[in-house]
Design goal:
Oligomer: single chain
Order of helices and strands: HHHHHHHH
Strand content: under 5%
Number of helices: 8
Radius of gyration: 18 Å
Structural class: mainly alpha
């Protein structure tokens, strides 16, 4: 039963952002593609955000918010998946401790990303020092979320199936969050230069 339960969890490691852009181009998707070139993982960025292109409408603010929202949703999904691992019988004590530590850091990551989405909503009409204050909060929180995800991934020093499935999930989430942070930083720079679209 333990193996069956574990393999069901392995099947559950399929993650989001699998819908490709199918080569379609429009002003809205072109904006997403151009913006994603500033990230560390452009193809993943385009896959995750192309479906939001019509609602983003060339807005740096809406693009940043969409990217952080995708990151939040993926972090929540990863945290739920890792929580299931903690309840799985048959894993070694060291693996169980690493899983529990990972749950803690992923919970912190979800909290930081939730705060970031809320802050991005508040700053829709922010200007000057008010904008800078909100943006500083978002940059700090998304950066903290990424750090917590990386801590989770590094916590599995032992080899085995548990490490493999957690690492696969966390690497994906951290890449999505890295992209979100890059787009948040891009929004900040373009806003300060006065070249962004609200």
């Amino acid at each position: 039963m333990e193996k069956i339960g574990f393999y069901f969890l392995v099947l559950a490691t399929v993650v989001g952002c699998t819908a490709a852009a199918h080569g379609t181009t429009s002003p809205t998707t072109d904006f997403v593609k151009a913006s994603c070139k500033t990230t560390l993982h452009p193809p993943l960025c385009v896959r995750c955000l192309s479906t939001y292109a019509n609602s983003i409408q060339g807005s740096d603010h809406r693009l940043a918010k969409a990217a952080v929202t995708v990151s939040l949703n993926d972090a929540k999904s990863a945290a739920a998946f890792i929580s299931k691992l903690a309840r799985l019988s048959g894993i070694k004590p060291r693996e169980h401790q690493a899983v529990r530590d990972c749950i803690s850091t992923m919970t912190n990551s979800v909290t930081s990303l939730s705060q970031s989405v809320q802050e991005l909503e508040r700053m829709a009409r922010a200007k000057g020092e008010d904008f800078d204050w909100h943006m500083s909060n978002v940059e700090t929180w998304v950066g903290a979320a990424l750090t917590n995800q990386n801590i989770c991934g590094r916590g599995f020093t032992m080899n085995g199936h548990v490490k493999d499935v957690v690492t696969k999930r966390i690497v994906y989430v951290s890449q999505v969050t890295s992209n979100a942070l890059a787009l948040v930083n891009r929004f900040a720079v373009r806003h300060r230069k006065g070249i962004h679209k609200p």
